Amino acid sequence: MSKKVYLKTWGCQMNVHDSEKMLGILKEEGYSQSDNPFHADLIILNTCSIREKAERKFYSELGRIKAYKNKRPDINIAVAGCIAQKEGRAIFKKASYVDFIFGPQNIHILKDFVSGTNLHISTEENPRIAETDLPVKRADSIKAWITIMYGCNNFCSYCIVPYTRGRERSRPSKNILSEAEELASKGYKEITLLGQNVNSYKYDTDFPGLLRKLNRVGGLERIRFITSHPKDLSDELIDAIFGLPKVCEHIHLPIQSGSDNILRLMRRGYTYADYIKKVSRLREKVPGIAITSDVITGFPGESHADHVLTLKAIKEIEFDGLFAFKFSKRPGTKTFDMEGCLNEKIKSERLSEILSIQDRITSRKNRLLEGTKQEIMIGGYSDTDKEKLTGRTRTNKIVNVPKFKIERGSLIIVEITKGKQHSLEAISLEK
Ligand code: 5AD
Ligand code: SF4
Description:
34% of the residues lie in helices and 22% in strands. By secondary structure, the protein is an alpha/beta fold. It folds into three domains: 3-122, 3-Layer(aba) Sandwich (Rossmann fold); 129-367, pyruvate-formate lyase- activating enzyme (Alpha-Beta Horseshoe), CATH 3.80.30.20; 373-428, CATH 2.40.50.140. Iron/sulfur cluster binds at residues 152, 154-156, 159, 161-162, 196-197, 229.
């Protein structure tokens, strides 16, 4: 009987894809996945430390896990991801029943852990991981993630990522290309290129050059990428989004704040005017492009006037979607000792103001799509209504259509009949 792993993941797409790599390694070691921790021989918690809330969720799960270990002392328990990197041995002190700790730069060590040939902790800075291509067990058979670069050099003053994922390291384009070709040969239709700041990808070519190479991979229909840093968004990249047929018309471009004063304290490297210029250029050159963004509210020292500037920016730009977060103080970052921390009540009020303005914008933008024709890629049945198929437009909007017989991954043209808050209703023009 094969050994079983129960793996729980928190956080961003990067972490979700890291979990696919862990499962790839474990498959080669004879493990299969279980969704019941009681049936597992190995439990892995792949953690996120971007905000305090994510950390709290992990620690309460870690508390629950203790009961499994008490009942089945032979279970191995591993803590992976950014908390593992940041806390290191301290996790053994807090929870002595943990067996392995490994950070996001040391995923390959999992093989040694499970075969019993390694020590119990691996959180060293690893400048070579970019060259170590790991096996991947992918959750989907149509859409796939490909990591193109690891780490981040930006050191935004609030952010823990450069400390947990290390400095920027790009993968050679030939490795990325062969991964994309292999995926296409297995029937994958869409790839999403992953990196903390894909715009600064640099190996033997730059990011627009990489997109040009990937656009030539036969069988692939769509290429997406996340995340783009506004300061590194070049005209050449905008031309690539416009000119390369497989590159989808969607960009995730975190603005973080609409106030120059706060952007400076955040060390973002652009002003609101710079950001607006890039948005205008994107919209001029790529008509219909969807722009989504991230905002942090309640950064230390954020005055009411700064907050109003963020609201103004959101109204002016009209994002297609927005993730808004309350500022969370992260040990080790530049903001940790900063004065002017705001209380939770103010942060919550500002957050709900931001979200309600954005909700109105999203609904209005979705309603404006009524009557238009869109290409969608069929992803399967809708989770909430099995009578419907669901897919995404090139601009990454969710569309539901009445079900009919069609293969996953097919591209169809639909007419939008209703724009709702979080999705679009449509009819297929193909059946
Ligand atoms: N507090 C709140 N939000 C944060 N983010 C990153 N660090 C923090 C923090 N300390 C947000 C940013 C980033 C997104 C992935 O998470 O908006 O773009
Ligand atoms: Fe964090 Fe800034 Fe790097 Fe994004 S660009 S991962 S926010 S440091």
